[in-house]
Amino acid sequence: RALVVSLIFKAYLAISSKLSEAGIIAGDAIPPKERSGAELFHTPTLRSAQLFERVCSDQPVCDPIGRPEVHAAALKQATGEAIYTDDIPRMDGELYLGFVLSTKPRAKITKLDASAALALEGVHAFFSHKDLTVHENEVGPVFHDEHVFAAGEVHCYGQIVGAVAADNKALAQRASRLVRVEYEDLSPVIVTIEQAIEHGSYFPDYPRYVNKGNVTEAFAQAGHTYEGSCRMGGQEHFYLETHAAVAVPRDSDELELFCSTQHPSEVQKLVAHVTSLPAHRVVSRAKRLGGGFGGKESRGISVALPVALAAYRLRRPVRCMLDRDEDMLITGTRHPFLFKYKVAFSRDGLITACDIECYNNAGWSMDLSFSVLERAMYHFEKSYRIPNVRVGGWVCKTNLSSNTAFRGFGGPQGMFAGEHIIRDVARIVGRDVLDVMRLNFYRTGDTTHYNQQLEHFPIERCLDDCLQQSRYHEKRAEIAKFNRENRWRKRRVAVIPTKYGIAFGVMHLNQAGSLLNVYGDGSVLLSHGGVEIGQGLNTKMIQCAARALGIPSELIHISETATDKVPNTSPTAASVGSDINGMAVLDACEKLNKRLAPIKAALPQGTWQEWINKAYFDRVSLSATGFYAMPGIGYHPETNPNARTYSYYTNGVGISVVEIDCLTGDHQVLSTDIVMDIGSSINPAIDIGQIEGAF
């Protein structure tokens, strides 16, 4: 109703402006401050600049490190020639799998009848939990608390109840709608964090706490205290390529899987579990993904496992690629969070203590929610030093699709709370938020609430650079003038500093492998444990190998990520893909260089191709494996207190100017400046692309 009134008023201002221009009404009929209320937003002319560290021009030509090399698959992707999972040509005898999804958020299945679907010509099989043992049906990325097919009870809307294998997609989807499922509703149905708190619906072993200093004493001595709360909702991943899998039986007891996943080894392990095959008879492959953002780290199993089971049982190739609505129903989102905090601070805004409760909405199964919560608990203070801290964390169990990894993995949610706290403090003490930020910033040598010392903390420099680059102080004066002169349109500028820890929260995942094969013509085939999701990981790995071997990038090719090339891979996630896989690639290159060293010494004027040819005829192995384990991490307050939680931190500052239309709520970002400290970039073009894409 308020919007309708606003739109009518907006029309009145626009019409009055036209009448005034035509001389029909007085020119001053509408006061100057009111006139901009008639305007609408238009997309401005986009202007941008990217600044990065230039490498020395005297570097060797075949050293591509630090240079803005073009993404290895950019041209293929731009022209549509790049092959994704569902672009693999259909095979002889291939079937399509259509899913039967739950239409209740929490209910007991009283009847499951697929006879009408199976009666259709071209429908070959129906699969449900009855086709698996209880053990085979229980799956999950860490805890096996999920099911391939719902077993007797559904826990969320969109849970997979069964699957129909048919000749084509249209028939499979039509048949799946004919499967009759009858339910008996169960209660309570819990959807929100507040409902979970009300019913005490938490996963076992929660809450968990992280403590530093003496919070109670700090509150007793504080000049000011304040209690507040904030929340962040969920978010769809909306990768351009939905979840997809193609399974091909290669022999009576072998399966090959092409899957759109960030974690091929996880798919291999769970397919082996569901089919009761040993892992060495299952090969999981991923050539490239059309986006992931964390949504394909663990949730790929929702599609891959039923597809693999159907292919194994029917001895025929089986395919499935979810429609967008199916994908959004079946898979979870970013974790919604609720934060309740109490903060103590001095009269000038120096924070002395914080007691904060973090609640995340996990959905119906654990998935990776425990790790997402931990990262939020470790990132809530952002770039600000708080000497006395108590952080409590709760993983809420609700009747939603299981929420999962999503870019930042709990970090953005925790930082969101930190920015609320710093602004609350600035508002109460009546100081500029920038001054309060500077007063509370960590300094090099400070220790976090999880006992990690900050060996190098450049946030002040990032802030100063960004303030200068964005003309922050000039813009503030311009914004104040604009706001005085316009009643219905307002502008504000925001400054956001960040500190993000680089490492997997689970220690064993901080490892990677590689395989380097050199052929007789000198060409190099490189395999590593990371997955190309569009982020340019393969391009960076080629650059690393080119420098290490001293050869042009054009001689190196990466075909795919496959579990028969590099086993036991970690997911491509947590912003460590290029770190750990790059080090594994270097390890393989160093082994090969050692073998070639005597040949290079004997033929100092030789070319790469001549050295390789000589090595082959001298029976020197031209294949090498590489491995890397991230050192010095694995912090645990009792068992490993001296280790680090994160290998290092990336830091950055963003400054944005936003304008809002007070009548309609419409808004527009007018300008953004970002300064990121990521060390010396392997490939500035790709890293800037990642930063801009994230923004």
From TrEMBL:
Top-rank taxon, per record: Eukaryota
Requisite cofactors: [2Fe-2S] cluster; Mo-molybdopterin; FAD
Pfam families: Ald_Xan_dh_C, MoCoBD_1, MoCoBD_2
SMART domains for the chain: Ald_Xan_dh_C
Domain Aldehyde oxidase/xanthine dehydrogenase a/b hammerhead: residue ranges: 79-187
TM helices/strands, residue ranges: none
Keywords: 2Fe-2S, FAD, Flavoprotein, Iron, Iron-sulfur, Metal-binding, Molybdenum, Oxidoreductase
Chain coiled-coil ranges: none
Gene Ontology molecular function: 2 iron, 2 sulfur cluster binding; iron ion binding; molybdopterin cofactor binding; oxidoreductase activity
PROSITE patterns: MOLYBDOPTERIN_EUK (PS00559)
Similarity comment text for this entry: Belongs to the xanthine dehydrogenase family.
Name of the protein: Xanthine dehydrogenase
Gene encoding the protein: Xdh
